[in-house]
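By convention, each integer encodes one residue's backbone shape. The lines below illustrate.
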Amino acid sequence: MIDLHTHTNCSDGTDSPRELVNKAIVQGLDVLGISDHDTTSGWKEATESLRGSLKLALGSEISCLTTDGISVHMLGLLFDPEYAEMQQVLEETRDGRLPRMRKMIEKMRAEGMDISMADVEQAMPAGATMGRPHLADALVAKKIVKSRDEAFVDLLHNESRFYVSHAAPTPAEAIALIRRAGGVSVIAHPFASHRGQILKAEDFSELVAAGLNGIEVDHRDQNPEERAMLRSIAKELDLVVTGSSDYHGTGKLNSLAENHTHREQWEKLESQADARRVVSA
């Protein structure tokens, strides 16, 4: 089994990199992709925890915004972590998350919700990249909602009155950066319509021109019709098709390896990086 999209507590997951690697080994995964939001800080611990036959495809899920304000997530895998421009962009995107969180909290407090930045910080593991799931955890702790999933369905989705965007590269800029850093790019859950505004089929041509390698098709937030359309787009544009769990640990329904990538698709994707960066024990 190959799962190319998971998160640890270095961003908004609940498992440490070591715990996630251990779970992947127990479940018999062949390849685990760790793609924390806008950071590579979990790579070292994950690599040091590796044993047996499990291999790691290390990367990051880069937060993007289209020119008309649609939120897009771009998975960058197998890039050179020492590539200075990549680390600079990741840092700048992380820095933009703090003022964004303050604005979201202000909107909630204006409607009478007892929530503060201190509550969000208390919900975050040390060194984590701040994100909406931490706000969701704070809302759970304050008994405003019952779970992360409820928080996103009712309050934190992209069309919510509480949603605030943040400074981020465009999808094409992120793809070009990933490719300059030697990696491969896969657009994450592009047709997950219940999250808010989504891309259109005609948007993919520009992304392919920028260097897009693949589309995350099999994802729990995309229904069968959306998946079929994405498979058709991938076939037409000769893009790799991936399936992933988007696992975050406790508090979200996503189970590790609930969707996975076929081996021939993974091999095609991995061959398109500029160097062999899959990590083995």
